[in-house]
């Protein structure tokens, strides 16, 4: 069923991100051909979108494209198009009906800028020497025209031309690398469905190297001067993947990359099939190791299984935060139960005015959401036992792999796998403000 919502007469797909997304259609494939000039931070692109209608009689399609200038629109027949306020609106010459497919080809250029929303700013940004894309939650339109909804998952092909002395990484498997004098053309394919905010490009004076001892192709992408520090900080990455595969099921994508920028970053960044870290996290302290584990866990929780709307962010961050505690336990440090009780004590001393299952846009990434989400999972584990809890985690990923899910879906599965006592825990943990007591160990 298509749910319609409008902001200023424009469709929107999520109340947390007004002015993003069109619920009337989805995108099945993006083909992005890009050229990037580091001098001036200039981007030129041609985006080919294969779309599928979700409703009957669609006479208008809205795409999201921020700041960049539209040069032309081809493919689907239009009577006219307008581009303002970050929305590219196409008036169709003939209506589309449910399940009909069409192709939209948008040529565009300009200087990409981050998208500023109530949830924060995100998108394409310059580094001191290169570029980075961190698009959660609404930054995808900063670099390509899209239907900016997490439930509009698609496959991607990204080809980008950049100066030859720079290394380019995008999602998925690299299929081609062709040097043409001063420019090199890089091609990547992300075959598993991906939400637009998880699409990324990373550009820097990097080198990529294989990391051995892992069940999946694993690489590090880092400036050569940082290689020794990288090898030390990320030494446990193969063991982390093995542990999470044991707990959550097979790694869900074709490969995994850890990209480290020469810049320092306030927080690490999540993308599908890769994670991005600042050089300030190249150490063995718990603060760095927990974040390495956190971003890896997002490949299962957030990327393979993605929320349908942002209010359910705890399904991503709660699992990723709990995975930190699980890694602590597996690596011989504090147990998950010890860490849970420490963080329960800290949360109990803070203001309790957030509803985990609908925290509001301004508290979307509040640390209380992360920690309370993890505590919710620990409460289920304590109530149902390890066997049922980890069956729950594996079944959650398997059942909703490459799809979208909601808190309601999770509650159904908890009842099915862990029983009614565990399911009854969810309402006070997820929908009440007061912090419940943890069950006894």
Automatic annotation (TrEMBL):
UniProt catalytic activity: Release of an N-terminal amino acid, Xaa-|-Yaa- from a peptide, amide or arylamide. Xaa is preferably Ala, but may be most amino acids including Pro (slow action). When a terminal hydrophobic residue is followed by a prolyl residue, the two may be released as an intact Xaa-Pro dipeptide
Cofactor(s) needed by this chain: Zn(2+)
Compartmental location: Cytoplasm
InterPro entries membership: Aminopeptidase_N-like_N, Aminopeptidase_N-like_N_sf, M1_LTA4H, Peptidase_M1, Peptidase_M1_dom, Peptidase_M4/M1_CTD_sf
Gene3D superfamilies: Neutral Protease Domain 2 (1.10.390.10), tricorn interacting facor f3 domain (2.60.40.1730)
E.C. number(s) listed in UniProt: 3.4.11.2
Domain Aminopeptidase N-like N-terminal: 28-198
GO MF terms, alphabetically ordered: aminopeptidase activity
Source organism, top-level taxon: Bacteria
Location of the Peptidase M1 membrane alanine aminopeptidase domain: 238-429
Keywords attached to this entry: Aminopeptidase, Cytoplasm, Hydrolase, Metal-binding, Metalloprotease, Protease, Zinc
Family of the protein in this entry: Belongs to the peptidase M1 family.
Full protein name: Aminopeptidase N
């Amino acid at each position: 069923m298509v749910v319609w919502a409008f902001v200023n007469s424009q469709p929107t797909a999520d109340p947390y991100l007004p002015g993003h997304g069109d619920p009337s259609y989805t995108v099945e494939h993006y083909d992005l051909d890009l050229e990037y000039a580091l001098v001036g931070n200039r981007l030129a692109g041609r985006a080919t979108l294969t779309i599928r209608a979700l409703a009957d009689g669609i006479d208008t399609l809205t795409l999201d494209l921020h700041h960049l200038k539209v040069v032309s629109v081809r493919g689907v027949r239009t009577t006219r198009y307008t581009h303002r306020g970050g929305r590219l609106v196409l008036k169709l010459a003939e209506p589309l009906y449910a399940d009909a497919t069409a192709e939209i080809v948008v040529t565009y250029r300009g200087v990409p800028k981050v998208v500023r929303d109530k949830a924060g700013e995100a998108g394409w940004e310059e580094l001191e020497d290169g570029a980075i894309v961190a698009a959660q939650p609404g930054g995808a339109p900063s670099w390509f025209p899209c239907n900016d909804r997490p439930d509009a998952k698609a496959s991607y092909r990204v080809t980008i031309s950049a100066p030859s002395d720079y290394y380019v990484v995008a999602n998925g498997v690299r299929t081609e690398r062709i040097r043409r004098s001063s420019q090199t053309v890089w091609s990547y394919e992300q075959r598993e469905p991906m939400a637009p905010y998880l699409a990324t490009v990373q550009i820097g004076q990097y080198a990529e190297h294989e990391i051995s001892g892992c069940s999946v192709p694993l690489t590090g992408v880092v400036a050569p001067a940082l290689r020794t520090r990288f090898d030390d900080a990320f030494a446990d990455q193969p063991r982390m993947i093995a542990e999470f595969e044991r707990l959550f099921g097979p790694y869900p994508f074709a490969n995994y990359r850890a990209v480290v920028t020469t810049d320092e970053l306030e927080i690490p960044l999540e993308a599908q099939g890769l994670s991005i870290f600042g050089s300030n996290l190249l150490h063995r302290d718990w603060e760095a190791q927990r974040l390495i584990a956190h971003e890896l866990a997002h490949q299962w929780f957030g990327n393979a299984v993605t929320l349908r709307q942002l209010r359910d962010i705890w399904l991503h961050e709660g699992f990723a935060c709990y995975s930190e505690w699980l890694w602590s336990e597996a690596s011989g440090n504090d147990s998950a139960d010890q860490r849970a009780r420490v963080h329960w004590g800290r949360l109990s001393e803070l203001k309790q005015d957030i509803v985990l299952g609908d925290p509001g846009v301004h508290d979307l990434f509040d640390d209380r959401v992360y920690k309370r989400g993890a505590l919710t999972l620990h409460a289920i584990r304590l109530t149902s036992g390890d066997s049922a809890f980890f069956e729950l985690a594996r079944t959650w990923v398997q059942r909703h792999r490459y799809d979208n899910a909601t808190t309601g879906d999770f509650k159904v599965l908890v009842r099915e796998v862990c029983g009614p006592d565990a399911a009854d825990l969810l309402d006070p943990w997820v929908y009440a403000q007061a912090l419940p007591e943890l069950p006894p160990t």
